[in-house]
Design a protein that fits this description.
The chain has 253 residues and is mainly alpha-helical. Helices cover 57% and strands 4% of the residues. It contains seven helices and two strands. The protein has helices at 20-42, 46-58, 105-128, 132-145, 150-163, 166-182, 189-227, and strands spanning 237-241, 247-251. Strand 1 (237-241) and strand 2 (247-251) form a beta hairpin. Helix 1 (20-42) runs antiparallel to helix 2 (46-58) and helix 3 runs parallel beside helix 5 (150-163). The chain starts with 19 loop residues before the first helix and ends with a strand.
Length: 253
Amino acid sequence: MADDQHLPSDASTPCESLDEHEIKKHITEADELKQEGNELFRASRWNEALVSYRTALSRLPRRKSQLPSPNNSQDDTSDHSGARLTSLGKVPTREEEPEPANISSELEAECARARAVLNANIGACLVKLSDHGGAVESCTQSLLDDPHYIKALQRRAASNEHLNTWSSLTQAQEDYKSLLELLPPTSPQVAQTKRSLQLLEPRQQAAQKKEMAEMTGKLKNLGNSILGNFGLSTDNFKFEPNGQGGYSMNFVR
């Protein structure tokens, strides 16, 4: 697929103007684009696959606020190593996508399954391109349509580990715990998930300690910049446990 792919002229057709037959046609078009993306993904053409998946996603109605959560979403990408960075083709923005339509619950569920898979596949491409922040966002969108989507949870957890912040590692912990509830007890992924969760705990604690120390340092510098006008510094104020679960502040010269 060329990077400057031209999009269908009706990609921004408002969904209110479509009947169920036309929406099904859009779903079919999205599936064809997804299959195209799968072939590109298997060929390690990550950027081009990303364009195909995003274009496919633009063909689908946007999520309703209370959309039923489908189960057993099928991910069609394969796990290949390597990455190749190229310029991305233009894809429709969220504003250009079809609006949520007044359609049957069965068709809504079909749209939700398609969105969940496409967003997870977008996340897979972004992982290959080392855009872990983007992968987290895409997998989160996938999980809004299917909270039980195992591959989206796995990818989000792995990408959050790469981000390696206190908040991202905490989110990874929650995702691994969710996976342990969702995976069949006989799945070989259970042991791996438990291992990942075990290794994550000291990293999360270290990140918390580091970020708290950085925040305290910044607050101390701010305090010193103000107190310095009065010939004082934060070292003049000592905080000591008061024996009641709190702290008392003492002024020292």
